[in-house]
Design brief:
The chain is of the alpha/beta class. The protein is built from 7 helices and 6 strands. The chain has 2 domains: 158 residues, no CATH class; 65 residues, no CATH class.
């Protein structure tokens, strides 16, 4: 399960790549045991050449030092790290790998924004990568890139149809996942909390209606018994 910070970094990286004119997709599986690229971007340059960039997102030291395969197969390859983590790991970054640091926008920055803010934070180039030849045949790379784009299109089309296509059990499981991203500092922004509160409120209202109906029936019964009692 991705953390809230990972999701924020993904969103920011995605918007940054789009702004730079790239086509971008997340979680691209490579062939021949070359792993999964967290985020892969593609751009055709004015001179007709192609530019492939791979991004690996890491949010903790243990994540950075994990044995998971790093799929740095692009022309330019980057780690995307929270700024504080970059400062801790700067000496461990290979010379050929670039680094983008992530920082979330604060309230003051959001308040002074003159255009809609599409990402939760921003990226800074801390270290530029060195150019390298693709570590994979470009035709195969493009195939896997397109497969991943098609996957995202399918997801988007499912979203357009709404939640009616999902069974109750599936919706319940998905909702349970949301509590892992609970923001204790902004409880009003948590859909999970709002859903639980509204569900409880609805349950209380329904129970109160049941109690009122029972009290009404009891009152009617008592009235009937009183009328039928011998004097």
């Amino acid at each position: 399960m991705k953390t809230k910070l990972t999701l924020e970094m993904e969103k920011t990286l995605y918007e940054t790549c789009l702004e730079a004119g790239n086509v971008v997709v997340e979680e691209v599986t490579m062939p021949d045991d070359q792993g999964i690229v967290d985020t892969l971007s593609y751009q055709r340059l004015p001179d007709g050449k192609t530019d492939w960039r791979c991004y690996e997102l890491k949010v903790t030291k243990s994540d950075f030092h994990s044995k998971a395969k790093l799929s740095f197969i692009g022309n330019y390859n980057y780690f995307v790290l929270p700024l504080a983590l970059y400062h801790e790991l700067a000496a461990e970054i290979p010379a050929e790998i670039g680094v983008l640091s992530y920082q979330a926008y604060d309230e003051a920055q959001l308040a002074t924004a003159t255009e809609p803010v599409l990402a939760p934070g921003y990226l800074t180039v801390e270290k530029k990568p060195r150019y390298q030849e693709l570590a994979l045949d470009e035709t195969a790379l493009m195939d896997h890139f397109l497969y991943s784009l098609a996957r995202e299109v399918r997801k988007a089309k499912r979203v357009e149809t709404g939640i009616s296509q999902y069974g109750t059990e599936r919706l319940y499981k998905e909702l349970k996942k949301r509590h892992q991203h609970y923001d204790i500092y902004n409880p009003a922004d948590n859909f999970y909390a709002r859903f639980i509160d509204e569900t409880r409120s609805s349950a209380v209202t329904a129970l109160q209606e049941e109690v009122d109906a029972l009290n009404f029936e009891i009152a009617k019964l008592q009235q009937q018994l009183t009328k039928g009692a011998p004097k």
